[in-house]
Amino acid sequence: MGLLVVGSIGLDNIETPFDKVENALGGSTTYIALAASYFTGPVSIVGVVGDDFDLGHIKMLENHNIDLEGLQIVKGKKTFRYGCRYHYDLNVRDSLFTELNVFESFNPVIPLKDKKTSCAVLGNIAPSLQINVLDQLENPRFVVCDTMNFWIERTKDKLLEVLKRVNVLIINDSEARLLSNEPNLIKAAKKITEMGPKYLIIKKGEHGALLFGDETIFSAPAYPMENIYDPTGAGDAFAGGFTGYLYKSQDFSFENLKRAVIYGSVMASFCVEKFSTKGLEDLSYLEIQNRFIEFKELSNFN
Amino acid sequence: MGLLVVGSIGLDNIETPFDKVENALGGSTTYIALAASYFTGPVSIVGVVGDDFDLGHIKMLENHNIDLEGLQIVKGKKTFRYGCRYHYDLNVRDSLFTELNVFESFNPVIPLKDKKTSCAVLGNIAPSLQINVLDQLENPRFVVCDTMNFWIERTKDKLLEVLKRVNVLIINDSEARLLSNEPNLIKAAKKITEMGPKYLIIKKGEHGALLFGDETIFSAPAYPMENIYDPTGAGDAFAGGFTGYLYKSQDFSFENLKRAVIYGSVMASFCVEKFSTKGLEDLSYLEIQNRFIEFKELSNFN
Q1: Which residues have C-beta within 8 Å of that of residue A26, sequence separation ≥ 6?
Q2: ipTM of this complex > 0.90?
Q3: How confident is the model at residue A4 (pLDDT cuts 50, 70, 90)?
Q4: Mutation site, A219, A295, A302, interface B, largest B CB count within 10 A
Q5: What is the pLDDT of residue A93?
Q6: In which element (H, E) is residue A12 found?
Q7: What digits encode the pLDDT tens for the residues B211-227?
Q8: Which distant-in-sequence residues (6+ apart) come within 8 Å of A127 by Cβ?
Q9: Are B3 and B36 in contact, with CB atoms under 8 Å apart?
């Protein structure tokens, strides 16, 4: 039994002004689990792929001490596929295609040994699936949840049900404004924490992240990056680093959540330095610690 | 001889979605000097107004230990006037009118006693006027400079002359991108410090500020504000708090510049809480120190 991650697993075609890749490993589960794997293990994932899914990917995940018992491989069907193109301003992306394939009928089944996990991450999937997962868990201590504009706009009622049952919601600034119907982020955060989650993290891309909770606010800086090669998965890497560190330390105080936000930012910064999951595949403990210290020096004053 | 501030002094008509004021005290010099006056005094200002300028404003400035020897009052002429309207998104403003009046033929004359000042702030005025001021100073130790899109677009050559002669440039993110012709702020900062100023501060509004220099970056958080009543003068209040604190401490190390950036952010946060200069007119030492501590708690982690 370890940290549990449920979400999508996919194959991505990604174009940026610098390069392009096809059939690259993607999906929220993948990024979250890889980022978390540097802090704790095994990380159990629950997801679905088709039989076109490269065995090399499976091997790479296993090498990161990721437990694949909950991975469903559906014969004769294709893996979820997504294509997008980033503009020169990497904050803007066009979706080129979305092929749900096996994901269309995904029914997450939590392995028996993982139902008692103390900590789970619900990646960005339909709120009804997130509820399905929550229903299978036996009294988890700490649940971290992601969502996106699509679910806020189309299935808000279901999402509100989810929010009542999770401890931390991680969303970006535009999603926070949409969910709360409030342009001011400080007011938006108040409204959202009243919806259920004790803690809220608002990611602001190149401007860092804000952690709200315990009537306190923590402002995390962004890592100063001259070159971002591929923003795909940055938010998931953040969620993975954040939760992986928390799970390892088993300290859910606000002070430790602040540290976890920095570790999340550290993993997101590594993620965007390479295409697809490459930036998360081969990191050392020292690299991660050094970047944590860089974050500290970046925002520290006396 | 004290800290010297040169820039505009004006009367503003300001409309926001919440309220509107007419003939309110404005201008870069005014905001800079008021903010700086909480750290050091006397603050000497050089500027020009018409004989329509309210004596009440003069009294208020004098009450803040602001030295008005360099203030020219032109008889029979009107003060510089500016009108603008802010939208619901307070980052967007429409200029309604600009009447240069006495400012059209402004020739800054630095009082003899102020020519030897060790520290000067060049508010956002034409680069040719900034050069005129620099030519009158006798070897100042530390010069802080502001500018805006208008001068970057129209008088870039003159501005580049100014930049070779100042120690700190304070601009916002869009101005930094325009000046450097580089969308990435980290790269933009490198290009700009190569133009002359040893230190560069990029203000990012609700996302805080970045200080660049000594091959180091400091990221200052933004104060979490639920209600911004009037953004006018926030950048000038930042420059005033920053320079006032530096002048008082006479410590121009990077570590102390970081503290100065926070004091600048503190003064900007007070500025926007009320209309016109009202937010800077009646602060206590304790309020300023408490907010400095709030900034520290906002970004501190171990």
Answers
A1: A9, A10, A11, A12, A14, A82, A232, A233, A276, A277
A2: yes
A3: very high
A4: A219
A5: 85
A6: strand A10-15
A7: 999 999 999 999 999 98
A8: A147, A151, A155, A158, A159, A161, A162
A9: yes
Contacts of B220 in chain A (CB under 8 A): 299, 301
CB contact under 8 A, B221 and A187: no
> What are the pLDDT digits (tens) for A114-159?
999 999 999 999 999 999 999 999 999 999 999 999 999 999 999 9
pTM assigned to the model: 0.94
| B185 to A206: CB separation less than 8 angstroms, yes or no | yes
Nearest CA in chain B to A216: B298
- Put simply, the answer to whether B208 touches A207 (Cβ < 8 Å) is yes
Instruction: Report the b/e string of A150-179 with b at 16+ CB within 10 A.
Output: ebbeebeebbebbbebbbbbbbbbebbbbb
What is residue A88's predicted lDDT score, i.e. its pLDDT?
76
**Are B299 and A89 an interchain contact pair (Cβ–Cβ within 8 Å)?**
no
- Residue B26: enclosing H or E segment and its boundaries? strand B20-26
The CA-CA-CA angle for residues B168, B171, B174, to 5°, reads 150
Copy the structure tokens of residue B113. 């006693």
Please work out, in degrees rounded to the nearest 5, the angle formed at the alpha carbon of residue A180 by the alpha carbons of B229 and B268. 25
